[in-house]
């Protein structure tokens, strides 16, 4: 599968808009070269989601921030195994700050590649980074740079990696050796006694039961914290969207008010123009009436003069 991993590494480093065409071209080249099996495997590679593409791109271009994030995740998991509550509290605070910073860097990186990161995609990227910090398997999957879907993890439990990798076999090459866990042994009351007797089975069972209960309580508290942080992020996103909507509506209101003022100004001018036209019309109608009377008088006088002329001409004509 190393050949498929190499091809996938090249394809999943491309911008989202180029992936499908590049994948199909590569599969066609392999088929032409006679490698039908690899061609079919390449053709079956799924296009990554927007969040998966961004995380893959961050792995390729933000090496130090991503490595630092995964290193802090390993430290966090060790503190969890040690049941070190005080250290876990500080490490979780550091984790939140670091994840937020890396997500911001990823958003800027996406902008450099001509891609806009929505609040939903940023949330999926954050969930993927958190999963990689809380689960060693998710960390190995992230390091491949071959994610096709975002990852999620519940508290400090294992992440669901089903279907998140283009080439699952690639993770084996990058998976770290199982970490050495420091065992936190508990001395029994018997070991403290001057008699030097070893702890009995009851004491060992109680110690193991207490440790399991402490682990469960810590895991539950961590899960509740993760859920609260997720709700806070979603609330912040909703607030940002609401702010943007308000700003857009306020800008639209200003535009409409400006247009309305312009229309009112034009209406005021038209009213004055109409008033002037009405006064001119009244005057013109009066002048027309006067002109009509004068024309009628002149016509009547002309008729009288014509009759008088005809009368004077009459005897001569006879």
What's this, in brief?
With 318 residues, the chain is an all-alpha fold. The protein has helices at 2-11, 16-32, 36-43, 50-61, 63-81, 85-112, 119-134, 136-144, 170-174, 189-192, 201-317.
Low-confidence stretches: 175-198
How far apart the termini lie comes to: 138 Å
Largest sheet: none
| Strand content bin | under 5%
- Average pLDDT reading: 82
The helix/strand order is HHHHHHHHHHH
Judged by helices, strands and strand pairing, the structural class is mainly alpha
Number of contiguous helices: 11
Number of beta strands: 0
Helix content: over 70%
Overall shape: it is elongated
Q: Any idea what the radius of gyration is?
A: 43 Å
How would you describe what is shown here?
The chain is an all-alpha fold and 318 residues long. It has a domain at 2-176 and 209-243. 77% of the residues lie in helices and 0% in strands. The protein has helices at residues 2-11, 16-32, 36-43, 50-61, 63-81, 85-112, 119-134, 136-144, 170-174, 189-192, 201-317. The relative contact order is 0.08. Residues 175-198 have low confidence and may be disordered.
Topology overview:
Layout lengths: L1 H10 L4 H17 L3 H8 L6 H12 L1 H19 L3 H28 L6 H16 L1 H9 L25 H5 L14 H4 L8 H117 L1
Helix pairs in contact: 2-3, 4-6, 4-7, 5-6, 5-7, 6-7, 7-8
């Amino acid at each position: 599968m190393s050949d498929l991993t190499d091809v996938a590494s090249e394809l999943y480093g491309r911008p989202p808009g180029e992936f499908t065409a590049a994948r199909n071209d590569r599969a066609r080249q392999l088929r032409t070269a006679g490698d039908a099996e690899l061609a079919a495997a390449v053709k079956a590679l799924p296009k990554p989601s927007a969040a998966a593409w961004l995380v893959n791109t961050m792995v390729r271009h933000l090496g130090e921030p991503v490595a630092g994030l995964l290193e802090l995740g390993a430290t966090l998991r060790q503190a969890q195994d040690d049941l070190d509550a005080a250290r876990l509290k500080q490490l979780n605070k550091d984790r939140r700050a670091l994840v937020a910073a890396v997500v911001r860097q990823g958003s800027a990186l996406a902008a450099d590649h001509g891609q806009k990161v929505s609040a939903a995609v940023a949330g999926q990227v954050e969930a993927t980074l958190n999963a990689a910090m809380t689960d060693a398997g998710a960390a190995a999957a992230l390091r491949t740079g071959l994610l096709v879907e975002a990852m999620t993890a519940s508290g400090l439990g294992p992440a669901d990696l089903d279907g998140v990798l283009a080439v699952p076999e690639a993770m084996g090459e990058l998976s770290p050796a199982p970490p050495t866990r420091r065992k936190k042994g508990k001395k029994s009351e018997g070991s403290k006694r001057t008699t030097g007797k070893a702890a009995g089975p009851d004491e060992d069972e109680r110690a193991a039961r207490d440790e399991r209960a402490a682990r469960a309580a810590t895991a539950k508290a961590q899960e509740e914290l993760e859920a609260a942080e997720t709700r806070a992020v979603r609330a912040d996103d909703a607030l940002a969207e609401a702010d943007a909507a308000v700003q857009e509506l306020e800008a639209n209101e200003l535009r409409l008010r400006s247009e309305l003022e312009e229309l009112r100004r034009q209406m005021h001018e038209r009213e004055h123009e109409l008033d002037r036209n009405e006064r001119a019309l009244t005057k013109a109608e009066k002048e027309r009436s006067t002109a009509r009377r004068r024309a009628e008088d002149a016509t009547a006088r002309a008729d009288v003069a014509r009759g008088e002329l005809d009368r004077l001409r009459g005897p001569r004509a006879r």
